[in-house]
Specification:
The protein is 0% helix and 42% strand. The protein is built from no helices and five strands. The chain is globular and about 40 Å long.
Length: 78
């Protein structure tokens, strides 16, 4: 079993290339690779500031970008 399981949610910091600060968004985990410290999942938040991403987009996220981790039964978007 990996660090993150299918269906888990992780809050990730997305940095924007523009002058505005980035934003924090939720990603729903499909699977993870503990050896390479990567999460494969789908964006579960609607981007407000970050350009180049959209709700439902498939992503690969580094463990170092994760700021919060919740199991599905604990998940409630802020």
């Amino acid at each position: 079993m990996g660090t993150y399981e299918h269906g888990d949610f992780v809050k990730v910091e997305f940095e924007d290339e523009g002058p505005l600060p980035g934003e924090w968004m939720w990603v729903r985990v499909d699977r993870c690779d503990d050896e390479r410290q990567l999460i494969f999942g789908m964006l579960d938040s609607e981007p407000l500031v970050t350009t180049g991403t959209k709700l439902g987009q498939e992503l690969v996220i580094s463990y170092e970008k994760v700021r919060e981790h919740r199991k599905p039964w604990e998940f409630k978007k802020n």
